[in-house]
Amino acid sequence: xxxxxxxxxxxxxxxxxxxxxxxxxxxxxxxxxxxxxxxxxxxxxxxxxxxxxxxxxxxxxxxxxxxxxxxxxxxxxxxxxxxxxxxxxxxxxxxxxxxxxxxxxxxxxxxxxxxxxxxxxxxxxxxxxxxxxxxxxxxxxxxxxxxxxxxxxxxxxxxxxxxxxxxxxxxxxxxxxxxxxxxxxxxxxxxxxxxxxxxxxxxxxxxxxxxxxxxxxxxxxxxxxxxxxxxxxxxxxxxxxxxxxxx
Amino acid sequence: xxxxxxxxxxxxxxxxxxxxxxxxxxxxxxxxxxxxxxxxxxxxxxxxxxxxxxxxxxxxxxxxxxxxxxxxxxxxxxxxxxxxxxx
Lengths: 247, 87
Prior knowledge:
The complex is a heterodimer. By secondary structure, chain A is an alpha/beta fold.
């Protein structure tokens, strides 16, 4: 594979046909390839998320991350956009699904696309990856320590969020879940409940919980970073996508 | 985790943001991932004027202990002044 990639801002059609900006990266060789939608975390479409998009491109995928805060803050810095989105109540689930659908369509429209698309999200994006996979025809989903897929948010949350238990029967694709044993949101008990629910629905899934790791163990610029879990996790992600998207 | 835990309130005052001084009308307070501080979670405060756009913002990210000390200092100062000044 030619190692050159190109990364740039693009417009995609999001929920309701809204034009929103997204960050897109692609290898520059002429091989057909599947796509990955990367859902950014609550701090927005920031440097770390863009690095993740480029990592998928370097690994041979079309990869795109829609800016979920574009409507509240078009053109703003990621941290300002995240603050504006938080102040206005966060991203509604319905809009998230529409934005991921638009990003997936954008990937499928690439001339060399195979048509297979997966989704991955970290933290709040982990829950949103599962949410998207429950409503869209996708081929793979990766949930990295997403809270409130099961479990109940505390009363009084100003940001409207609820668990996805009633939506799990609609999960459209295999799910890889990567979690930390010391995380409380999601806790090991909650990921065990999710494991059980998916099994009862006959949904293909693979979970790994890392001892000694808490939340955000993939984030290299935070104290929560756990290199052993992160290195193993990346290996599992690409092995999983190899089976689900490249087979 | 992304705690989602956020308190929003109306405020009256001014703050100095990237474009200089401005009136601020909204505050959000949340304990969550910071954008800049090298910590897992910080106590974050945004003073905003939404009418001026998302960049009209004064932001801070404090280690929780520092945030508590700041809050106690603010309350102590307010308590020490006559009510006519602080109401």
